[in-house]
Amino acid sequence: MHVQQTVQSKREAYHFAMRNFRAFVIHAAVLLALASSGHAAAQVLPDLGDSAQAGLSPQLERKVGESIMRDYRRDPDFIDDPEVIAYINSVGQALVSVSVDAGREFEFFVVRDPSINAFAMPGGYVGVHSGLILSAQAESELAGVLAHEVSHVTQRHIARQVDKSDKMQWPMIAAMVAGLLAARSNPQVAQAAIVTSQAGMMQSQLNYSRDFEREADRVGFTLMTPAGFDPTGMAQFFERLQKANRLAESNAPVYLRTHPLSTERMADMQARAAGAEYRQRPDSIEFQLVRARLRAETGLPQDAVALFQRQLKEDRYLSKVSAHYGLALARLRTHDPKQALDSLNAAEAIAGPHPMFATLAARIHRERGDLLAARDDITRAVTIWGQRSYLVYEQALTLQALGDHLAAVAVLDALLRSHPHDVLAWRMIAQSHAALGHVALQHRAQGEAYALSGSLADAIDQLQSAQRARDGDLYLMAAVDTRLSELKGLYAEERAARR
Question: Any bridge partners for residue 110, and if so which?
Answer without folding.
Answer: 128
